[in-house]
Design brief:
14% strand, two-stranded antiparallel sheet, single chain, globular, name from scop
């Protein structure tokens, strides 16, 4: 447990990727302030791992909702997906 207070997100972006269905992850939610807080709260309620990467979030915030991530962000997003899979115990 940390002694630091939890900070509220200034920006949050949610991605969706279903192996076997999607070729590329899609942006499914994006927002700042109270919307970002709601995105993070919903993720936590559903047990979704959260990765704090403000630079990547800023880049993804420019992607229209339900659109695939741009090719120049594949590597960065792949690293986040790896983090999420490791956090869920699916990768070592």
């Amino acid at each position: 447990m940390s002694d630091r207070p939890e900070t509220k997100p200034a920006l949050a972006v949610a991605l969706e990727y279903e192996h076997g269905l999607d070729q590329v992850p899609r942006v499914t939610a994006s927002g700042r302030g109270p919307i970002a807080e709601a995105i993070v709260a919903t993720a936590r309620e559903h047990g979704v791992a959260i990765e704090g990467n403000p630079l990547l979030a800023e880049a993804l915030a420019g992607v229209e909702l339900d659109q695939e991530i741009p090719e120049d962000l594949y590597r960065a997003v792949a690293e986040v997906i790896g983090f999420v899979l490791r956090a869920a115990g699916h990768l070592r």
